[in-house]
Design brief:
By secondary structure, this protein is of the alpha+beta class. 41% of the residues lie in helices and 24% in strands. A hairpin with a 2-residue loop joins strand 4 and strand 5. The two termini are 25 Å apart.
């Protein structure tokens, strides 16, 4: 099983994750659980790159999550992960703060498991 497959299996187990896409900064999709992931991949990439550009331009530290609110509580959350962006469509029955905290906790476990450079 590839790392992308393991990531996909774990991210969908997080309470509140309805749909997701993991893409590189150039928009190339790594993994997803959607029929058509192109729109979410484009939103995640464009918003993520622009948020990072704004952050650098005004001297803030990096963003942890960018939330785009939608009607019906199907919010879109974008998380930066090294050279990737994770876009998540929220399950409307879950509180946004709970989902963001759970995803950030999961992402922290990935950072801790990352091998040290030689």
């Amino acid at each position: 099983m590839s790392n992308a497959d393991r990531f996909a299996q774990r991210i969908v187990q997080i309470d509140g994750v309805n749909q997701f896409v993991l893409c590189r900064h150039d928009g190339h999709v790594i993994t997803h659980n959607m029929e058509d992931c192109d729109d979410l991949a484009s939103v995640a990439t464009i918003c993520g790159i622009n948020a990072q550009a704004i952050q650098q331009a005004i001297g803030f530290s990096g963003f942890r999550c960018l939330t785009l609110k939608r009607q019906g509580q199907h919010h879109c959350h974008i998380f930066p992960i090294d050279k990737y962006f994770l876009g998540i469509i929220q399950n409307p029955e879950t509180a946004a703060t709970e989902l963001v905290e759970n995803v950030q906790r999961f992402l922290q476990t990935l950072v801790r498991k990352k091998p040290a450079p030689a």
